[in-house]
């Protein structure tokens, strides 16, 4: 069975085509600048040259049509006909409380995703555009949606509620939802497989640290707490997001600086985090380069980042009354040996012992970076949200037959 996985943003669309007989990627690519003057389609068929095409792509339906043309192209294609695609999986950011797992797309499911536009105004509308575009281009082919929030729906009320007037939850569903759920679920499963232990008996802390960053406490295979909240702003210090702060900062700054809601939102989401403290970059590579060169602002940014990360690991060890496995994943987690080293250095009270040499090795495979004596297994596991979505899509389509 061939499954196409789509991740639609407001002006972009990423895709990966899987052959699910062996879970291999046949092709992947990206359409950027949808709706702008010159859109760019980058298509990479496995084992062949990457191709780039600039054209005018005004909306998502045309974007998917162009992708399908590339997938079936004589020279750059990997399919003889579009009919070979038997299902399409879509990444959707917010599933609210309605979706506790991935779901087959029906008119009701689409209506529910639309009802959640309020909670994810930037992310859920493009997902609907992606689904509509896929239905228009591939009539009769089933679509499945996978939600970033779904894995965290197992959190208990005492964890997901904020201690504010309860009427706000009743009226507006204000609560912790979390994000990166597909990634946290995927890496926690791979960790259990790698260690050859049943996930039901493991306490795992998964650190998904990329541009956006979140931690999840996974106990017995389910999410019991996660650092992102109503939106992805809560929790860790990130590339451009502040993470946790006293909510009064928001009202105080709005008052003193005469900022509007959208301006303060933009400040906290786009102009904070590593970028704000370093004054130079939101990219961890630049921050660690600056830290190594002894630059004071980058050093402070690095130290704040690591300190906040470590505090959350401690909090989740407390939440689960222990931790067996710590997993690092995503851009920073998979690539930054120094972030892993400095974080683990201060986790010795948990019995964490890092093997500094193993930590420096680079590979695209799951691997252990703790010593045999370490009481906690520390692993680096490359995340693969697309594969997780493709697996869910295959399972749900097969179950629906
Ligand atoms: P996103 O949250 O956008 O999906 P990624 O998970 O791809 O982000 O992470 C991107 C980030 O990973 C970059 O901004 C950069 O900070 C970090 N990163 C990538 N490679 C390295 C590296 N070799 N060393 C340190 N950080 C890295």
Automatic annotation (TrEMBL):
It is found in: Cytoplasm. Mg(2+) binds at residues 7, 385. Pathway: Metabolic intermediate biosynthesis; acetyl-CoA biosynthesis; acetyl-CoA from acetate: step 1/2. Its EC number is 2.7.2.1. The keyword Cell wall biogenesis/degradation does not apply. InterPro entries: Ac/propionate_kinase, Aliphatic_acid_kin_short-chain, Aliphatic_acid_kinase_CS, ATPase_NBD. Gene3D superfamilies: 3.30.420.40. The keyword rRNA-binding does not apply. Its cofactor is Mg(2+); Mn(2+). The record marks 180, 241 as: Transition state stabilizer. Mg(2+). Can also accept Mn(2+). ATP binds at residues 14, 208-212, 283-285, 331-335. Substrate binds at residue 91. It comes from the Bacteria. One of its GO terms (molecular function) is acetate kinase activity. PANTHER family: ACETATE KINASE, ACETATE KINASE-RELATED. This is Acetate kinase. It comes from Paenibacillus phoenicis. The gene is ackA.
């Amino acid at each position: 069975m061939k499954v196409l996985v789509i991740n639609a943003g407001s002006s972009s669309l990423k895709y990966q085509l899987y052959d699910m007989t062996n879970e291999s990627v046949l092709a992947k690519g990206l359409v950027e600048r949808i709706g702008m003057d010159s859109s760019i389609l980058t298509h990479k068929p496995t084992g062949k040259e990457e191709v780039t095409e600039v054209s005018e792509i005004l909306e998502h339906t045309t974007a998917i049509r162009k992708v399908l043309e590339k997938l079936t192209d004589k020279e750059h294609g990997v399919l003889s006909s579009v009919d070979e695609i038997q299902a399409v999986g879509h990444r959707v950011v917010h599933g609210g409380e309605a979706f506790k797992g991935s779901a087959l797309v029906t008119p009701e499911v689409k209506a529910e995703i639309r009802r959640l536009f309020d909670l994810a105004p930037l992310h859920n509308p493009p997902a609907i555009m992606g689904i509509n575009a896929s239905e228009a281009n591939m009539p009769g082919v089933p679509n499945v949606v996978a939600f970033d929030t779904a894995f965290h729906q197992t959190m208990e009320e005492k964890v997901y509620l904020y201690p504010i007037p309860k009427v706000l939850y009743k009226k507006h569903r204000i609560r912790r939802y979390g994000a990166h759920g597909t990634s946290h679920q995927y890496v926690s499963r791979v960790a259990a497989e790698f260690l050859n232990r049943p996930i039901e008996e493991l306490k795992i802390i998964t650190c998904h640290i990329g541009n956006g960053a979140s931690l999840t406490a996974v106990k017995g295979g389910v999410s019991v707490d996660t650092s992102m909240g109503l939106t992805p702003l809560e929790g860790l210090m990130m590339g451009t997001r502040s993470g946790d702060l006293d909510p009064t900062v928001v009202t105080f700054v709005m008052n003193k600086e005469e900022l509007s809601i959208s301006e303060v939102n933009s400040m906290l989401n786009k102009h904070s985090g590593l970028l704000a403290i370093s004054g130079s970059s939101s990219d961890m590579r630049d921050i660690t380069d600056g830290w190594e060169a002894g630059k004071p602002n980058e050093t402070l940014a690095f130290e704040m980042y690591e300190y906040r990360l470590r505090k959350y690991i401690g909090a989740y060890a407390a939440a689960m009354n222990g931790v067996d496995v710590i997993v690092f994943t995503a851009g920073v987690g998979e690539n930054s040996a120094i972030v892993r080293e400095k974080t683990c250095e201060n986790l010795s009270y948990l019995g964490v012992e890092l093997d500094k040499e193993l930590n420096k090795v680079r590979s695209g495979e799951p691997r252990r970076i703790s010593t045999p004596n370490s009481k906690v297994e520390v692993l680096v596991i490359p995340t693969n949200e697309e594969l997780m979505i493709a697996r869910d899509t295959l399972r749900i389509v097969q179950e629906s037959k």
